[in-house]
């Protein structure tokens, strides 16, 4: 990489009481520390106490400095970390001093991008870092750490290595087809490619576990108006996120709350009650509710227990195999409560008082775990990876059916490139901006 300008960012700041960490990376990072501290560079990778002053000699702060000479640093460049007192005046003085020394504020994700460009990590690891910073539940954190450790990178690099070797064999066969090449090479390559295509197929058939874990499992609360859907959402969320009223047709838009369910991320959505709409806004709300019913991974279909034995038609129509039936307003029930509705287990609750909520939440939790928990194999975590593995598998299947070895070799090359794009080994220049933009500044 061409020598780049030294960048800096406040990598973490804990406000007035805490420690603020400034990170500098680039060719003049060491020189900058010398100028600010008025001392030679400290021992590498050792926290050293420094008194920093700006160019005019005015003291900025008394803190710690760490010196990481490249290439054995996070970005591969010379890196300096300054641990100073939190607080706005220090931040303003440090920023002014660094700008005066011709450093430039870093863009979001720029440190990680430099690390990627220096070959310190691959794209899946870079993405995992962004995931780790954004992780809200324990399961998300574990998944991000596994990926940061290189689990996905190793899998894709292994596959890509096998593909490149197969391609070389097939091409050798083409180039030397008149000469005495050991027989059976074609069959051997065919065998290996079939195994790889099958491995990719089973990797793709992971039930989207990794993506769910990143984005959260989508749970929709559905049912007729006034059955207590919004009350249920508020009860589960533990706060008044949605408006509750005795008027049917209160909820119009979709209201989402993010939950941590036994360490697993869930996006719980309240929706408009399903009925013949009385006006345009309600109609749009109902359209959105139906769309969410389609896309949700689990739905809680709510009925009014006060109306038993009558059960609302719109609700019954939604009791598919991803549904849990909820009989709300248990306190108003006069008829016996059915344990099962349309073959779905029915949970009787009172959203108003909280009765029965433990059993319902336990069911929701075990459903979420069934969807999200798998073995230890690394899982796809992003649509970007999924698309590339799908492309690789399709190309491999084509190569197995290709009439000519030249065509087979070309398809194997396409498959290898698709995998190379995931890890960033090939062809990624135009994607990088997109990927690193989602990082925060200082990472
Ligand atoms: N008695 C009793 N009343 C309840 C219970 N849950 C909700 N309600 C009442 O039922 C009414 C409707 O509640 P909401 O939560 O607004 O119902 P909803 O399904 O969201 O209604 P829409 O948004 O209009 O579709 C309110 O007056 C609530 O106080 C319950 O468990 N018992
Ligand atoms: Mg509502």
Shape: flat
> What's the helix count?
15
CATH superfamily placement of the largest domain: P-loop containing nucleotide triphosphate hydrolases
Beta-strand content:
15-25%
Question: What separation lies between the terminal Cα atoms?
Answer: 19 Å
State the share of residues found in helices, binned by percent.
Answer: 40-55%
Order of helices and strands: EEHEEEHEHHHHHHEHEEHEHEEEHHHH
Quick overview of this protein structure:
This protein has 443 residues and is of the alpha/beta class.
Provide an overview of this structure:
The protein has 443 residues and is an alpha/beta fold. The chain has three domains: 7-106, 2-Layer Sandwich (Gyrase A, domain 2); 124-206 and 379-437, tRNA modification GTPase MnmE domain 2 (Four Helix Bundle (Hemerythrin (Met), subunit A), Up-down Bundle), CATH 1.20.120.430; 215-372, 3-Layer(aba) Sandwich (Rossmann fold), CATH 3.40.50.300. 45% of the residues lie in helices and 18% in strands. A seven-stranded mixed beta sheet has the order 8-9-7-10-11-13-12, with helices on both faces. A hairpin with a 2-residue loop joins strand 12 (340-341) and strand 13. Helix 13 (383-401) runs antiparallel to helix 14. The two termini are 19 Å apart. Bound molecules: guanosine-5'-triphosphate and magnesium ion. Residues 229-230, 242, 250-251, 270 line the site of magnesium ion. Residues 225-231, 244-246, 248-251, 272-273, 328-329, 331-332, 350-352 line the site of guanosine-5'-triphosphate.
Furnish the topology, listing elements before pairings.
Blueprint: E1 7-13, E2 19-25, H1 29-37, E3 48-53, E4 59-68, E5 79-85, H2 88-100, E6 104-105, H3 110-117, H4 123-134, H5 138-148, H6 151-175, H7 185-204, H8 209-215, E7 217-223, H9 229-237, E8 255-261, E9 264-270, H10 280-295, E10 298-304, H11 313-317, E11 323-328, E12 340-341, E13 344-348, H12 357-372, H13 383-401, H14 405-423, H15 429-437
Parallel strand pairs: 1-6, 7-9, 7-10, 10-11, 11-13
Antiparallel strand pairs: 1-2, 2-5, 3-4, 4-5, 8-9, 12-13
Helix pairs in contact: 4-5, 6-7, 6-14, 7-13, 13-14
């Amino acid at each position: 990489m061409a020598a780049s300008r030294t960048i800096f960012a406040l990598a973490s700041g804990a406000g007035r009481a805490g420690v603020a960490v400034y990170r500098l990376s680039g060719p003049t990072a060491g020189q900058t520390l010398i100028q600010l501290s008025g001392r030679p560079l400290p021992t590498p990778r050792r926290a050293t106490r420094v008194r920093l002053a700006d160019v005019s000699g005015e003291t900025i702060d008394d803190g710690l400095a760490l010196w990481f000479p490249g290439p054995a640093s996070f970005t591969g460049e010379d890196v300096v970390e300054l641990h100073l007192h939190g607080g706005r005046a220090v931040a303003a003085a440090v920023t002014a001093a660094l700008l005066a020394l011709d450093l430039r504020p870093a863009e979001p994700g720029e440190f990680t991008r430099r690390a990627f460009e220096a070959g310190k990590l691959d794209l899946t690891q870079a993405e995992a870092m962004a995931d780790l910073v954004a992780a809200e539940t324990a399961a998300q954190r574990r998944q991000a750490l596994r990926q940061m450790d290189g689990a996905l990178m190793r899998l894709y690099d292994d596959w890509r290595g096998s593909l490149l070797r197969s391609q070389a064999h097939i091409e050798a066969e083409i180039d030397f087809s008149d000469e005495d090449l050991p027989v059976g090479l074609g069959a051997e390559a065919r065998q290996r490619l079939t195994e790889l295509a099958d491995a990719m197929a089973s990797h793709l058939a992971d039930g989207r576990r990794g993506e769910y874990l990143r984005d959260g499992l989508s749970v929709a609360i559905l049912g007729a108006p006034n059955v207590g859907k919004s009350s249920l959402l508020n009860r589960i969320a533990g706060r008044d996120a949605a408006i509750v009223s005795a008027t049917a047709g209160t909820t119009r838009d979709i209201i989402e709350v993010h939950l941590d369910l036994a360490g697993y991320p869930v996006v719980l959505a309240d929706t408009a009650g399903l009925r013949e709409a009385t006006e345009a806004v309600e109609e749009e709300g109902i359209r959105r509710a139906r769309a969410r019913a389609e896309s949700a991974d689990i739905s809680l279909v709510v009925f009014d227990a006060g109306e038993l034995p009558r059960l609302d038609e719109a609700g019954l129509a939604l009791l598919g195999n991803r549904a849990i039936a909820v009989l709300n307003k248990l306190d108003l029930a006069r008829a016996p409560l059915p344990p099962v509705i349309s073959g779905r287990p029915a949970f009787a609750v009172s959203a108003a008082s909280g009765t029965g909520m433990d059993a319902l939440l336990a069911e929701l939790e075990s459903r979420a775990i069934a969807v999200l928990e798998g073995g230890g194999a690394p899982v796809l975590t992003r649509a970007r990876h999924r698309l590339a593995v799908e492309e690789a598998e399709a190309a491999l299947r084509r190569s197995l059916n290709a009439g000519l070895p030249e065509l087979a070799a070309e398809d194997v090359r396409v498959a290898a490139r698709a995998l190379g794009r995931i890890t960033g080994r090939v062809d990624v220049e135009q994607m990088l901006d997109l990927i690193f933009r989602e990082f925060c500044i200082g990472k």
